[in-house]
User: Fold this.
Amino acid sequence: MMFTRDGDCPREAEVLEAIATNRVSQVRDHLAMCAGCADVAEVAAAFHDEHERATREADLPSAGAVWWRATIRARAQAARAVSQPITVAQGVAGACAVGLACGLADIAWGAVSSIGRGNALAGVLVRSEELAAGPALMLQHMLPLAVGVAACLVIAPLALYLALGDE
Assistant:
């Protein structure tokens, strides 16, 4: 019986391989003489037996069930892929609706505040003059406005895609 410095037998790997391949009879004499290998063999045999028992008792689904689940998963993924552009379009439409609502709220706030001051007609006329001056103001500042709109059109769908993306 030979031991290395750390107490392990040099034939330990051979014992483990014999247990894994069901050839314990080849190392039976060594196991009778080496207590360390006998302990290793006992533990390895227990693990090996448990592995074989678990493999025999594994309840695998039928091929039809596996195929059906794969089909359902593929359909769900296809539906998600198809609905993604619609979700992005809804997000852009929602952002546009919020912007329009904010603009209308500003116009309404100006009209309400002028009514509160007692000069309702003057407030409406001032607001209509501001609205009429809008296109001229847009023409003066078209490039910055176009850059801002383009940035929103690029960034908003990207943000929605990142926020609503599943994977």
